[in-house]
Amino acid sequence: MASTKPNKYFSTALGQIIRRRRMTRTFDGGPSLEDLKELGELALRAPSAGFSQGAHLLILVGDDLQRFWQVSGVGAWFGKTSPGVLEAQSVILVLADESAYTNRYSEGDKAGHGLEKAENWVKPMWLTDAALVTQNLLLLIEEQRWGALLFDLFVEPRKLLDAFEVPANVHCAGVVAVGYRHPQDQPSGTPTQRKRKASVDLLHFGTWNTHIEDPLG
Ligand SMILES: Cc1cc2nc3c(=O)[nH]c(=O)nc-3n(C[C@H](O)[C@H](O)[C@H](O)COP(=O)(O)O)c2cc1C
């Protein structure tokens, strides 16, 4: 049975932002370049393995943004499926520099585990770190009551990255369209067709097979 107790954590400012956040697919302009710069600076203050700090943000507005929509092919896709996305003020590419990690793990305090070679990592942690920056972006944008849509480069990401002079060992972890949420923007996408899974099925305590309905009860 679900708890009826008020939850002390979800009522914090951050808890409310996390609960309120949803993807925006109809934009109406958006913040200035100065505000986007501040947003980016704050979002980059995320944890990183070995403090490698390999996440970068490429902010595109104006003509650069139009070139992004065109070269990536994403503009044509959203033009057909969700044209309101193309009214966003900016897209921010979240980029992961693999070599920042292989270089950092060649240094004295980290050397000796073979991690100076990307293929020896059990997973590409540069993408993990970039995902943390991405979530910072989404939450900071929601805090401002702006709008964001996270998507990825569907086809030939390298072609797009080359067009914007992104080095070969730097990968795109995701793209965040940023703008003001249009007053008529409605919840959209898959959450309108599927229910959120019950947390009791996703939270495990002690072993995979142990779930607790009300762990605080
Ligand atoms: C890695 C990733 C890729 C996504 N790609 C797309 C996308 O290409 N197009 C899109 O409209 N939404 C995309 N989304 C948004 C998800 O559909 C959305 O987060 C999910 O349905 C939950 O909805 P909410 O974020 O509004 O709560 C993506 C989300 C993630 C995390």
Small-molecule components bound: flavin mononucleotide
CATH superfamily: NADH Oxidase
* Top-tier CATH class: Alpha Beta
Percent in helix = 25-40%
What fraction of the residues are assigned to beta strands by DSSP?
Answer: 5-15%
Biggest sheet architecture: 4 strands, antiparallel
Q: Whole-number radius of gyration?
A: 20 Å
Number of strands: 4
Q: What is the typical, i.e. mean, pLDDT?
A: 94
Class by helix and strand content?
alpha+beta
CATH topology title: NADH Oxidase
User: Taking strands numbered 1, 2, ... along the chain, how are they ordered across the largest sheet?
Assistant: 1-2-4-3
User: First CA to last CA: what distance?
Assistant: 11 Å
Number of domains: 1
CATH architectural label: 3-Layer(aba) Sandwich
- Spell out the helices and strands N to C: HHEHHEHHEHEH
Give the low-confidence spans: none
